[in-house]
Every structure is written in structure tokens, then in C-alpha cells.
Automatic annotation (TrEMBL):
Its EC number is 2.7.7.65. GO terms for molecular function: diguanylate cyclase activity. Keywords: Membrane, Transmembrane, Transmembrane helix. Residues 377-513 form the GGDEF domain. This is diguanylate cyclase. The keyword Membrane applies. The lineage of its organism: Bacteria, Pseudomonadati, Pseudomonadota, Gammaproteobacteria, Enterobacterales. InterPro entries: Diguanylate_Cyclase (IPR050469), GGDEF_dom (IPR000160), His-kinase-like_sensor (IPR054327), Nucleotide_cyclase (IPR029787), Rev_trsase/Diguanyl_cyclase (IPR043128). The chain crosses the membrane at residues 20-39, 295-316. It catalyses: 2 GTP = 3',3'-c-di-GMP + 2 diphosphate. It comes from the Bacteria. GO terms for biological process: cell adhesion involved in single-species biofilm formation; negative regulation of bacterial-type flagellum-dependent cell motility.
Length: 513
């Protein structure tokens, strides 16, 4: 049912419909393929651009991080130098505090600078006052330096400052005494807010991400995440599992383990410090923006395609209507031809007697004369009339007269004649023969046979004339070589004249002119 409807709707039952639909389908597939391909190329290009942008951003962020920590490193080294310069070994002096404060103020990223002895006690700090009995021996960086003879700068996990309550990144150096033993730690704390502010300068979408990460996979700061992600491990991130193992910088997409969102990331490992920075563009946001940019062209293309398809269907429909109309016209023409033929045939037959009509007689006679002229062979005409038919008609009535006409007509039709001869009802009580290739002698014989045929039918005549039967009289004329100038009218006139002769001579006989 559905298939039938579809076949009819799409005109698939016609050759025109099939080829039209084939063309429309090919057009649809072609336009769709080109559009999809163009859009795919455009989306791939956008992704590649986003990858490049993320990579560039991560490289600049890595420069910024390197500069930030390098300045801190130099400051720490300055502090070490200053400590070495103190003659009596006393660090807890106002001069040292001023020195530390002055150095701290130089760098925006610095939260504070601190000097601890080998027990973790505060010796000096850039802050206004030293907390009483303060001890940092429990801090992770302190324990590290106490237990490791490493002279390099160390960047630790984020901690909350005991002096300012801020989230800070501890950057520390091991102190040595003159004998080379552990003498404590010099610490500079870098504000996490410094990175927060810096990363906020960039015009990014809500779900785009920037992160500063320790090389041991610990998050130091990451936007747009809450501070709860700070110090989380990214060991499960593709960044540490695979990506960084292949290259120190580059671009790739992966799902962040912090929120599961897929981003196009750029990443860069710092050369001088064990840090990694990443910049990631949210793929879904990129897709939405790209879609919005292409929505207009997409809508226009769709509208164009729909218009073309609509026009195609309309043309197909129009062609189908035209074909239907043509079919109707030819069917009607056929019907008209049939009707015409019927009408023509009816006009050529006499309705009452079933003999040829007067019209057919005229046509047939003209044709016989034409052939006679070209062949030189004779053609004859016999005209017969019922004797005393007016009286018959007047006495027995018109209906009886009609019956008599039919009976006489039948008698004449039943006469054995040549297939080329024609018997017609000439009109009124008259009958006529056209006899091609018939000489005057033979025409006269046929006229007499006609008279005889009617007589032998014994059709009863008028009631008050017993023993009388219906008779006819006949007159004939012939065109032959001797009177070759005769036309149809002359032949008929002569035959009628002969008929009158026969009537005058007493009826029931034939006469010839
Ligand atoms: N029933 C009938 N009568 C017809 C028809 N056509 C003509 N007639 C009649 O035929 C008669 C012809 O009369 P006439 O021409 O005088 O011929 P007639 O009476 O036979 O006279 P003669 O020719 O001298 O024998 C008229 O009365 C017509 O009304 C017809 O179709 N049916």
C-alpha cells in the first residue's frame, strides 16, 4: 500500500517519472556530498586552527611561568648571598627583615620571603612580625631539604600561608652552614592568585582551560576549576600517560580527568623548572561557535536544495499533467474519429430500407463515372419507382407505405447483382442502381429483372383492388463511348425520363433512353 502510494506519488510507474526522479536523486546526493565534504573540511580546519592557537597559548604561558619562577629563583639566591654576607651569623636583624621586605615588594608574584634554621624556626621574614614560637619543620619542603642534599631550587605543592592565609606555591632552597651541614631553608612563596589574575586576562570561553602543573602531575592552579582541584594529581591524564612522553610541547585533544570534558589542548614543559602548562579549548564550544558561523550558509544551502527539488517535482508534475492531457486529447481524437466514421457510415446508409443512401449513390456514381472516363468502359444508371404509390400511401396510410418501401427495397437488394453494382433508396418511392462496366443492353436487362423481382414478391396492393400486387417501373440510361460527355446529372435525368416513359406506357415495365 505504502509502496504503491510512493510509486504513484513519485510517478515511478512512468519512464518520465523514473528518469526525472533519477536526476533529482543524483542532484540531491551530489549537492549533499559536496556540502558535507565542504563542511567537514571547514570543521577540520577549525580544529587544526584551535590546536595551533592552544599550542601558541601554552608556549606563551610557559614563558610567563618560567619568567615568574626565574625571578623568584634569583631573589632566593640574592637572599642566600645576603645571609652569607652577615658577619656575625645573626640573621634575625631589622636590616635583614628590611632586605627581605624590599625584595618581596619588587616582585608582584611574591607573597613572602622566609628564612628558617635547621630546626624549622623562623629566623627572618619579609612580613611585619614574626609569629611567636613559629616553626615550619613540619612543612613538606622543609623535610625535603633536610633529607636531601640538593642545591637546586625546589617548587612544592600549594600550601596555605601561615602568615597571610593565602594559597601559595612554596619555592625553596637548602641552606648550608660553613661545615656544609644542613642549616635550614630559605623560602619564597608565590601567590596562586598571581596566576589566577594572569590567566583571567585571556579572553576565553567558560569551559576553556589553562593550567599550571608540577612535573610530578600535581595541579598548582587550573582555570576554570574550583580551588579544590589544586594539589590534585593528573597522573591519569593522557598528558602524563602518553603525550609528554613523546614531546615536551605540542597539541592534541583529550578528555580532562578533572571534569571529563574533551578539549583541544596545547601543552609545554618548562626547560628550567619541573613545570608543565596546558591551554585547552572546549571542543563542544568550538563546535557550537563553528555551527553558528555556518548556520546561515547551511540554511541557505538547504533552502536552495529544497527549492531545486521542489522545482524538479513541479516540473515532473507539469510534465505528467501534459502527458495526461496529450493522452486525453489523443483518446478524444480517437473517439471523435470513431464517431465521425459512424456518422459517415450512417449518412451513407438509408435508415428505413437499409440500402445505400442517396448520398452514397451520388458518391458512388461520381466515382464510377471517373473510372469510366479513364477506362472508357460504360456505366449505367437504373431508376425505379413504385407504381401508384401515392394512391397506396393515401389509402393504406404512411406506415403501410413505409412497410411497402422496405419490402420493395428488400426485393431489389436480394437481386443477384455484380459485387461492383450498387442499389440505393433514391428518395420517396424511387430506387436507383449504379452499374459500372455495364452496357445499355445489360442495364436494360437488369431494369427488367428489377421490375420482375418486385412483381414476383406478390406484395398485396391496395385492398379494394383484388389480384393486384405492388409493381414498379424502371428507366435506364448509359454512358459509353458514344455519349462520353455525359455527367451524373445527365445520366440521372435520362434515366428518370426513361422511367416516365415506362410509366406512360402502362407501368410494370422498363424503358431505356
Ligand atoms: N410512406 C411513404 N410515402 C412516401 C415517402 N416518400 C414519398 N412518399 C409518397 O410517395 C408518393 C409519391 O407519389 P407520386 O410521385 O405521385 O408517384 P405515384 O403515386 O407512384 O404516381 P406514379 O409515379 O404515376 O405511379 C407521395 O404520395 C408521397 O407522399 C416515404 O418515405 N414514405
Amino acid at each position: 500500500m505504502k509502496k504503491k502510494f510512493l510509486t504513484h506519488f513519485l510517478y515511478l510507474h512512468t519512464a518520465l517519472g523514473r528518469s526525472g526522479n533519477g536526476m533529482l536523486f543524483a542532484l540531491l546526493v551530489g549537492v549533499l556530498a559536496v556540502n558535507i565534504w565542504t563542511l567537514k573540511v571547514s570543521w577540520d580546519k577549525r580544529l587544526a586552527e584551535a590546536g595551533d592557537e592552544a599550542m601558541n597559548l601554552s608556549v606563551s604561558l610557559s614563558r610567563q611561568a618560567e619568567d615568574t619562577f626565574m625571578q623568584v629563583e634569583f631573589t632566593l639566591k640574592d637572599v642566600m648571598h645576603e645571609i652569607e654576607q652577615s658577619h656575625d651569623g645573626n640573621i634575625s636583624t631589622p636590616e635583614m627583615r628590611d632586605f627581605l621586605r624590599e625584595r618581596q615588594k619588587r616582585l608582584l608574584q611574591l607573597n613572602g620571603i622566609f628564612i628558617y634554621d635547621e630546626k624549622g624556626r623562623w629566623l627572618a621574614a619579609s612580613s611585619e612580625k614574626l609569629p611567636a614560637n613559629a616553626n615550619n619543620a613540619d612543612r613538606e619542603y622543609f623535610i625535603y631539604h633536610r633529607d636531601n642534599e640538593n642545591q637546586d631550587i625546589r617548587i612544592g605543592h600549594v600550601i596555605r600561608s601561615r602568615s597571610s592565609e593565602d594559597l601559595v606555591i612554596p619555592v625553596s632552597l637548602r641552606r648550608y652552614d660553613r661545615s656544609g651541614n644542613f642549616a635550614g631553608v630559605v623560602l619564597a612563596t608565590v601567590r596562586v592568585d598571581y596566576f589566577r589574575k594572569f590567566y583571567n586576562f585571556f579572553e576565553l570561553e567558560d569551559r576553556d582551560a589553562l593550567a599550571l602543573i608540577l612535573a610530578d602531575t600535581t595541579v598548582l592552579y587550573a582555570r576554570p576549576f574550583p580551588d579544590s582541584v589544586i594539589n590534585q594529581s593528573l597522573a591519569q591524564s593522557p598528558l602524563f600517560r602518553t603525550v609528554l612522553k613523546h614531546a615536551d610541547s605540542g597539541g592534541r585533544s583529550w578528555h580532562s580527568p578533572l571534569d571529563g570534558i574533551e578539549r583541544i589542548y596545547g601543552y609545554a614543559r618548562l626547560h628550567r623548572f619541573p613545570l608543565v602548562v596546558t591551554a585547552g579549548y572546549d571542543k563542544a564550544t568550538l563546535w557550537q561557535k563553528w555551527l553558528t558561523d555556518h548556520l546561515l550558509s547551511l540554511a541557505l544551502n538547504t533552502a536552495l536544495l529544497a527549492t531545486v527539488l521542489g522545482m524538479g517535482v513541479a516540473i515532473l508534475r507539469q510534465a505528467r499533467v501534459q502527458k495526461h492531457n496529450q493522452h486525453e486529447i489523443s483518446r478524444m481524437q480517437g473517439e471523435l474519429t470513431h464517431v465521425n466514421q459512424t456518422l459517415h457510415a450512417l449518412a451513407l446508409l438509408d435508415e428505413m430500407t437499409g440500402l445505400a443512401s442517396r448520398k452514397q449513390f451520388d458518391i458512388f456514381l461520381e466515382e464510377a463515372l471517373r473510372r469510366s472516363r479513364s477506362s472508357g468502359r460504360p456505366v449505367s444508371v437504373v431508376i425505379a419507382g413504385i407504381d401508384g404509390f401515392r394512391y397506396y400511401n393515401d389509402t393504406l396510410g404512411h406506415e403501410a407505405g413505409n412497410k411497402c418501401l422496405r419490402q420493395v427495397g428488400k426485393a431489389l437488394r436480394d437481386m443477384p447483382l455484380s459485387t461492383t453494382d450498387l442499389v440505393a433508396h433514391y428518395g420517396g418511392d424511387r430506387f436507383a442502381f449504379v452499374l459500372p462496366n455495364t452496357s445499355s443492353i445489360y442495364a436494360f436487362e437488369i431494369a427488367m429483372r428489377a421490375v420482375s423481382a418486385v412483381r414476383h414478391c406478390h406484395l398485396p396492393d391496395v385492398v379494394d383492388a383484388p389480384g393486384h400486387t405492388v409493381t414498379i417501373s424502371a428507366g435506364c440510361s448509359t454512358r459509353n463511348a458514344a455519349n462520353s460527355d455525359m455527367d451524373a446529372a445527365m445520366l440521372i435525368h435520362q434515366a428518370e425520363s426513361a422511367l416516365l416513359d415506362a410509366k406512360r406506357k402502362g407501368k410494370n415495365q422498363a424503358s431505356q433512353k
